[in-house]
Amino acid sequence: MAELVQTVRREVTLTLENGLHLQPISQIVRCAQSFTGFVSLLHNGKRADAKSAFDLMLLGAECGAVLTVEASGADAAAAAAGIVSLFESCFGVSDTAAH
Q: Is 99 a catalytic residue?
């Protein structure tokens, strides 16, 4: 019997003053790699594999950008929640535009 593939999409806003740079990208990659499903970020018509730092750098997301987190697979909900929590916590840094 075929297994139903779940896809979860959530929008996040990037609040880091320096945009999506290497430090937060490394956190996204580590988080995404801890899940078996496919996780991607979408921005301005571009899709990036969240398990690839190179792909994420090519998004060119700047402060204020709205990105879509898309996860599919058996652990899609947990994967999307993990990535969203990184954005919501400002990646544990204090260089946000709100400060």
A: no
**Other C-beta atoms within 10 Å of 29: how many?**
19
> Is the separation of the CB atoms in 79 and 35 below 8 Å?
yes
- Residue 24 falls inside a structural domain: yes
Domain extent at residue 45: 20-92
pTM value?
0.89
CATH number for the domain that contains residue 70: 3.30.1340.10
Residue 43 resides in a domain = yes
Look at the chain and report how many structural domains it folds into. Answer: 1
Whether 28 and 80 have beta carbons less than 8 Å apart is answered as: no
Q: Check 10, 19, 21, 42 and give the catalytic one.
A: 21
Q: What is the mean pLDDT of the chain?
A: 92
Extended strands (E) in the chain: 7-13, 38-43, 46-49, 66-72
